[in-house]
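Hey team,

Filing this mostly as a record. A colleague (T.K.) asked me to run one chain through the structure pipeline before their review meeting, and I want the input and output archived in the tracker in case anyone asks later how it was produced. No errors, nothing strange. Just documentation.

Input sequence:
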Amino acid sequence: MQIFRPMKFGIIGAGMIGHFHAKAIQAMAGSTLHSVFDLRGEAAEKIAAEYGAKAYSNFEDFLADPELEIVTIGTPSGAHRDPAIASLQSGKHVICEKPLEVTTERIDDMIAAATTAGKTLAAVLNRRFQPAISAMKKASMDGRFGQITSASAYVKWFRTQAYYDSGAWRGTWALDGGGALMNQGVHTVDQLLHVAGPVVAVTASTALLAHERIEVEDACVAILEFANGARGVLEASTCCWSSTGHPAEVQVCGTQGSAFLADESLRVWDFAEPQDHDAEIRDTLMVGAARGLGANDPSAINFEGHRRNFQEVVDSIHENRPCAVDATEARKAVAVINAVYRSAREGGTRITL
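Output structure:
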């Protein structure tokens, strides 16, 4: 096995997401958390001390550090572009939290900066690294579904009013970029596209049903039309209470098979032509009753997917190959979500992508 030189990471943002990133980096083989930046000096000092890193409250000084190689960004969604472009222009690789940005135009600005700098711009698409979604992706690539006819995603989660009140940026178009779909649903949209392929048209409706003092939706339903001819439903909500939290689901059906993902487990794995490894998949990936991974409490999400995501970026840099979670991949889900919001604003008009 080839062993690569460790890489030094820096984190932008010392909040909850920053701690997720720090834990994921700490768990990686070789790579280390080198530095932390936050305008709140005390917050930067706290997380840096916990993980043995340098703390910065001056952004220019943070980027000027010659030992820093990869920057991870955990700022609010609509505040990803500027720090990402500045980091790329300073010669750093960048890994940015979901969504990569809140519009495709802002993402295109970031991609252009990465191309000019000759650096990697990657996204946190951590749910792609779950074994169950990998099994669904392989089944799709192998043609086991036959003609895919139905592909849908459901995120029926719950957020309290206190969640939205906890930060002035939450629930705003400028910094959240949207509500239940953009913030909570983007990972599940990405998983759906990852397995079922591109969407070519959407028809949508959104509403604000159960929360106050926010600009964005807490309920969304859309009809999806896929390039392969399949139809599907996309539903996202933050007003579906459950004592345990409903799992986020991706459901893909075709003329030769069906598979339903419920968070990290498979709820259905059924194909017309069985294969030898199906029994192992059922034994290892269809485990118990699925509970919502972060459905009620965003801090309950584990960091293993982040670790694998970060490792893929490091490996791609060392191997001088395209990254599996690069900006062009992350752009796809945002393009669909932007189209959903446009359709809803225009009274349910069919929007083509």
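Quick notes for T.K.: The first strand starts at residue 8 and ends at 12. The chain is about 35% helix and 20% strand.
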